[in-house]
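quick one, 342 residues, struct below
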Amino acid sequence: YPVLVRLNRQRQEREIIEQVETAPPSVEPDQGFRILSVTSNTANAYFYNANDMMRKQDWKNAEIELKRAIKLDPDFARAYVNLGVVYTNLGQFQMAKECLNKALIIYPQSDLAYQNLGFLAVHTNDIRSSLYYFQSALDISPDNCEIMVEIGKVYYKLNDFNSARKVLNEVLSIDSSYVEANFYIGVVEAKSGSYDLAEQHWLRVIQSEESYFLPARQKALEKLGYLWSNFKNDPAKAVECYEKALHLSSGRISENELKAIYLPLSLLYIKTDNFNKAQSLLETVLDFEPSNIEARYYYAVALKNSAREDLAITQFEIITKMNPAGKYYENAKKNLVLLRGY
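---
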C-alpha cells in the first residue's frame, strides 16, 4: 500500500514542505504542496513538473525533469530522492540506490531517503538491509508510524513474529485506529494461529470509512473471508466478505487480485450449491489464464453439479492433458470414470 511520507528540511535555507504518497514500484498522487522559499525557481519548477509526471507514471519524462532540476541546483536532495523513486520504477535499481545515497550525502538527516532505500531493498529482496534502512529512518523520525509499520512488515518477512507484533503494537499505542498496523498485526496473529485476535484486528480495518484505506479494507475482507472459510467454518460469512471485497475493488482490480478473490469465492459457491455463480467467476479466470488448472478443475466440478455433464467431461479431458503429475489430473480421471464409465 502507498505509504504517507514526510519531507523534513532537505535543502539548506530553502525549505519545501510537502506530503507525498509513495510505494515502490509506483507513486500515487501527491496530497499537495506549500512552498515557503526556494533559491532556484526554475529548479523548483522542474521538480514539480516531475511530480506531475510521476503521478501519471511517466517515469522517463520525470527523469528528464529531475535531471534538469539537479543540473541547476546540485544540492537539491529531494530531487535526488524522487529520482531514486523514478529509477526504482524503471527497474534501474543500482542507479536508484546511487541517487538515494547522494541525497543522504547532501542531507544526512533525510528520513525519506532512508525510507526509500528500505523500499528498494525490499523490492530487490534484500530484507535484512531494508531493516537497517527503515531503522535509520526511524532514528531520525522516532514517532513516524509509517516507518514503524514497514519495520513490522520486515520482521514478519524474517519470521520474527514477536518483534513484528511488538513494533506494530507500538504504532497502535500512538494511534489505536491506525489501519495498516491493525491489518498487519492481524496477519501476524493469523500466522501464529491466533485466529480470534487476527479477526479482531481485521474487523477494525474494515470499519475505516476513508477512501484512502479502500485497498486495506479490501485486503482485510479477503483475509476475513479466508479465515471464516478455512478456520471458522462459516461459509455464509466468508461469501459475504469476498463479495464485499469485490464491491470495493470495482473498476480498479488487477487480474492477479481478481483471481485471489474469484477462486476462493467460486469454491464457496460450489460448497453452498450456487453452481451458476461459480461457473461465471471461473469462466472469467479462465478467460485471462486458460492454463490455470485449479480454476479449470473447479469449473468442471461446477458444470457437473449443475447437470451439464457433456461440458464437464470436456473440461475434465482437457485437464488430463494439462498436468499428468498433479492432483487435479487424478481427480479429473476419477470424475471421467464416474461420468462416462471409463
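Confidence is low (pLDDT under 50) at residues 1-39.
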